[in-house]
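Re: Re: ligand-bound prediction request (bumping)

Still looking for help on this. To restate: I need the protein modeled with GDP-alpha-D-glucose bound, output as structure tokens. Inputs repeated here so nobody has to scroll up.
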Amino acid sequence: MSSDLVIVYHRQPYEEVELDGKIEFRENKSPNGIVPTLKSFFGKVDHGAWVAWKQAEDTANPGFDRVVEIEDDYGKYSVSRLPLTENQVKQFYHVTSKEAFWPILHGFKERYNYDPVDWPNFRQVNWSFAEAAASEAAEGALVWVHDYNLWLVPGYLRQMRPDVKIAFFHHTPFPPPDIFNVLPWRKEITESLLACDAVGFHIPRYAANFVQVARSLTDVDVTERVRVSEDLISEGTALTERTVPTRLSWKGRDVIVNTASVGVDTAYIAERAATDETANQVARIRKEMGDAQLILSVGRTDYTKGGVEQMQSFERVLEANPELHGKVRLMHVSVSANRNMTVYAEVQAAIEETAGRINGRFGRLDWQPISLISRPIPFAELVAYYRAADVAWITPLADGMNLVCKEYVSARTDGAGVLVLSEFAGAAVELGSAVIANPFSNRSMDEAILRGLRMGEDEQRARMAELKKAVEKYDVGAWGRSIDEVLGKVGGSPSPKPEA
Ligand code: GDG
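Reply:
Sorry for the wait, this slipped through. Here it is.
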């Protein structure tokens, strides 16, 4: 009961490395994640806590400690890892979260798998997270819960600790009632979210969908609605709402509904892009390319990312435009977060099969249309590819935000390059200056990539300048500040700690 701010997130803020049979904790160096931004909130309080999970079998290792006290540049905080059994991890994470919630959140009703869900197990795991947060939180502390696999935590926590303030952030899209309400646990989940003081989303459309869902299941009242910032509204598209509900009243309590899109560390990426090492790598890539244009596609191996649909578009474009043969290459970086899960193994197999077919159909001794990379590449190398690419082709079928497109823009300090972006990536709301494509339309996909390949330098530079402005405006720091503002409104920590 000692922390003013408790972050509950299934990911750990530290990587565990085994050295001589002993576990050591190392800072997670990934520059592109939001972990450093989350940790920076600990600097605003006297003591913070982070609650994550760890598979329990690891407790057999003598170096394993459930709670680790950390004092670093970010502040003083503890990290507790809930020990979950292998079956709990499978049920809570792989089955319920990934087979039932994930497809619904992204609008794939036909992929939703209800039968194997062990709901009591999901409740139990969420209860354990809530208990861990309750035991860390000081009187009146703020508990900040992340993502759908912890949906029931706010409701349980409200019962355990009525004194704490609770905020929740969704990293995924949030669907409208016709899709969300397919979940049999819809009311339980929604009532848990309404137990929060603030519920957050990347973009206004998801917030509006959540409010529609809440209204379809409960008698919640909308008590405040605001007009969405003009720069998030692109005329002629349906990318965002014009007005959005920002405050609800339910059972006598206020619930703030906020939107704040996660951004990237633009300065870090720009700095990385400007190094000699990057310049050398870019020169090497360009030399390998000869006079062919490079299309770059990066995304986790997931059906939501639309990898197969994109390759099919590439196939149609090659078929209809023989003059492009030998003159264009697609580099597809698709890394699986979890190879053991059947659904991801199937996507990987489909990607490999499609790429193989296209290469077999059009390839020549001196030209392979698609290069497939299925292992993670170091971030520095990824930046070099961002820099070398003529076009970044990012066309998920659904994506909460999508940071890859923002990283691409941040890396293009040379002001050139084209971004072709799906209108169903949350990022499209801010990045209306990209060539926007509808991944459900063959014509839209094919025209967009051709437009990207044929775009002249002046138009590229004009669009990239606009994209850069948006990516800098909505960078990771802005996300932090915007969340800070909401957390301030709910009256909990972190308010700046008094000077010593
Ligand atoms: C979820 C939501 C939301 C990819 N390949 C390599 C590599 N990556 C890095 C990218 C980027 C990250 O992975 C992917 O981030 P995204 O945001 O694009 O997508 P998700 O993983 O699905 O993230 C998403 C996000 O949460 C934040 O709220 O934007 O919508 O689905 O940073 O650079 N990094 C390296 N090698 C690779 O091969 N080093």
